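User: What would this chain look like folded?
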Amino acid sequence: MNTAVPPEASRPARLNPLPKLPIFFDLTGKRILVIGGSEGVAWKAELLAAAGSTVPIFAENPSPELLALVRSDPNRLTLTRRNWRDADLQGISVAVADIEDRQEAQLFADAARRHGALINVVDQPAFCDFQFGTIVNRAPVIVSISTDGAAPILAQAIRRRIEAVLPFSLGEWAQTAKDFRERLREIVPSKSGRRRFWERFVDAAFTGTTHERERDGTLDDLACQSQDEALERGTLGEVVIVGAGPGDPELLTLKAMRELQAADVIVYDRLVTSGTLELARREARRIHVGKEGHGASCRQEDINALIVDLALAGQRVVRLKGGDPAIFGRTGEEVAACRDAGVPVRIVPGVTAASAAAASLNGSLTHRDHAQRVQFITAHDRHGNLPESLNIDALADPQATTVVYMGRRTASKLATRLIEHGLPPDTPAAAVSNVSRDNQESVQTTVMDVAQGVSLPEEGPLIIAIGASVSARSEVPLRASRAVITPSEDRQLVPTTGRAVSALRDDEEGLKLPLYRGVDVACAEI
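Assistant: Here's the prediction, encoded as structure tokens.
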């Protein structure tokens, strides 16, 4: 019998140690001293001037790039063709130097610190108070990336990927929003209404127009929609029941991630992994309502009451469940409780463990040569026993794939009954625990072995798949980073069609996959 325990508040995991703290300085009007004449110094001087500082540069042999830079912005950049002196550090906030000689670098660092300046010496971290990150500039939106000097090329690769995701108009949207803040308070007085506005704003900023007049009109429309919704709901919150998938955070849907990042409170199950919770809004309250077969569990009635009470108090509640909430997740009871209380409720589906288990085995639950039907069952009733209501005749169909949830304790009894009702004893079976997680385990066996008590993985949630499809595995591992398609013998190119055949991309070369005759056949086989 399960022991009832109350819901328990939790908090996000503590931050891992940071090698450097990213801080954004306001350098407007500050004097920043730069020493050296290299191309690298020219880039740093341009960056500092772009941040609004005045940059005196001292270099005996300035590069052509540095000379051209100084000519382009004489109001912020000045060049003196000599080495630095102690007096040059008077009134300096930050000092940047490209000095190869360690002894001179030490002298410069000591002098700068005496004048109270922060120091960066290029490629000499022992003398640095700070480092420059790799920057994505969508001002006023700025993204800075650091690898703490471990792999600068990695930082550049990350920047390229972020550059590809952030539209060039994002900065203009951000500036428009900044100017709109006061008007927003007039249109939408409530905090909850403004929260809805900002969620809509983010979608518009990533997909909307680049024309300023249209942006202004869009913000007015979004504000009015948010206010209308706020008036309709009043102080009422909502409940969003979200599928967290089987465990791997990368299997979380984009919609589920958006809901996690917009939540006021996250009410989550035992099967939700810490990696998934790390993707949630850090300010959100977290309440654990875990259940464990034959172990300590929160009562479903208490969970229903909790999410309803939180929503009635005006909170945006994410009810986070492992797998897909519509499959053996008691979602119907929670939806009914919300509707009875007049609380708005929505469901965001997730990847169910059955699908993830099939993928981990490189197989299909509905291989057309072996299965005309797939059926999901739970082998665990409210008392922990094999449910008496199971249609064993249907489950014993050799042309079906049966996926068993929560069947660790009853697997042997279920397999025995399947054999008694006509399922061939040599029918393949696979048991996978902790699907998609680092500690995943799998056992491939037969129904007879399961009936005779073959050892199954002992830890974590368990999925058992039964049927001929289980043994019909693909020879191409689904976790491979790329698939190779061999051209046909005539090597004639065929036109691309509307079918989504993506070009492979090499990180450095941008190589594309040629499309050859036979590509449809190859893709089908994969």
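The chain has four domains: 32-132, 169-233, 238-351, 354-466. If you want, I can go into more detail on any region.
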